[in-house]
């Protein structure tokens, strides 16, 4: 009985506690011993599906259906997916291609597979059946401005009474000041354009925004998948949770060497996830921070015009800050 209880405690402990994430100031400081572990990404087996199309039955298609289900492209009809390339999968592939600016053929051509393999944010592109990206725009054309940025369904946002937000770090991660500074910088990229302010708090329980690194199943139903694959996810207001995959190799100090291994730039991912914390969904604009994928070895931290327009439509502009030359004044 005692042993069972201990085992139970151990499993709870090991599933929820974070392995200490790996941080490195730059790519050349990653010890070679870590590199062999990061050659196989979570989705590499999708390479075998290149060229597949409607009517085929190929081992591995069920896993791809799970992928599309996870990101909202296949509804909740069945979780026991077959290896049949059926109509539902073809529609999913077409919508995916629309969202990622690819030819909407419904076939798994090379460029589509290449896009699918890229590391990405774990937040779905299609939420409750409505696409926040290109594939949903036809339906929203009847509304006002057609923009690329998007919000989560119901447009959740921080109310005017909560514009001065606090953030705190999962104490168990024992993050260093260098890592924390990456997030300070990432928050500043959004506060620059909006009336929102972000202040670090030492009280994790009461902070508006809670940041932590976790591995695998960490209790919110959105498991991480090891190296590459999904990198992070965050929840819309007012939940305020920002989770990052502790199995990634995170780079905290700029500049990537060319041909760098599977290391991810922490600030790039942090800026994107903060967009979700503030209510933004994914965008089909590739330059936008809110585009869902990012390749390893890429640093992308500057808000694009699309991001600025999105966040200002949601929370207004910082006094005296206009979006760009041609923006609507007083937005
Ligand atoms: Zn995202
Ligand atoms: Zn999570």
UniProtKB/TrEMBL annotation:
Report the superkingdom from the record.
Answer: Eukaryota
Motif range (Cysteine switch)? 119-146
Q: Name one GO molecular function term.
A: metalloendopeptidase activity
Coiled coil, from the record: none
> How is this protein annotated for GO cellular component?
extracellular matrix
Enumerate the residues binding Zn(2+) 2.
121, 272, 276, 282, 290
Residue ranges of the Peptidase metallopeptidase domain? Answer: 154-317
For the keyword Hydrolase, the answer is yes
As for family, the record states: Belongs to the peptidase M10A family. Matrix metalloproteinases (MMPs) subfamily.
Q: What is this protein's record name? A: Peptidase metallopeptidase domain-containing protein
**Organism, scientific name:** Lactuca saligna
């Amino acid at each position: 009985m005692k042993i069972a209880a201990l085992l139970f405690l151990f499993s709870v402990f090991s599933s929820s506690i974070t392995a200490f994430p790996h941080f490195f100031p730059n790519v050349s400081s990653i010890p070679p011993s870590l590199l062999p572990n990061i050659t196989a990404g979570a989705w590499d087996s999708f390479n075998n599906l290149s060229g597949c199309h409607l009517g085929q039955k190929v081992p591995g298609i069920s896993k791809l259906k799970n992928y599309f289900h996870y990101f909202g492209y296949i509804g909740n009809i069945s979780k026991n997916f077959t290896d049949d390339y059926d109509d539902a999968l073809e529609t999913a592939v077409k919508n995916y291609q629309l969202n990622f600016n690819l030819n909407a053929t419904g076939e798994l051509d090379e460029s589509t597979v290449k896009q699918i393999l890229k590391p990405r944010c774990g937040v779905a592109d299609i939420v409750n059946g409505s696409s926040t990206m290109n594939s949903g725009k036809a339906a929203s054309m009847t509304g006002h401005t057609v923009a690329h940025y998007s919000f989560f369904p119901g447009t959740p946002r921080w109310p005017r009474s909560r514009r001065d937000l606090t953030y705190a770090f999962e104490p168990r991660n024992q993050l260093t000041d260098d890592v924390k500074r990456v997030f300070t910088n990432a928050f500043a990229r959004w506060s620059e354009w909006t009336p929102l302010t972000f202040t670090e708090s030492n009280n994790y329980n009461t902070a508006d925004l809670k940041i932590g690194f976790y591995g695998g199943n960490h209790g919110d139903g959105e498991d991480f998948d090891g190296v590459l694959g999904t990198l992070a996810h965050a929840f819309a207001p007012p939940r305020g949770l920002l989770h990052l995959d502790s199995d990634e190799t995170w780079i905290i100090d700029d500049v990537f060497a060319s041909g760098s291994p599977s290391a991810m730039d922490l600030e790039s991912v942090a800026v994107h996830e903060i967009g979700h914390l503030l209510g933004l969904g994914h965008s089909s604009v590739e330059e936008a921070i809110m585009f869902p994928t990012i390749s390893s070895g890429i640093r992308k931290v500057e808000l694009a015009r699309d991001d600025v327009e999105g966040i200002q439509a949601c929370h207004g502009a910082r006094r005296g800050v206009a979006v760009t030359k041609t923006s609507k004044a007083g937005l």
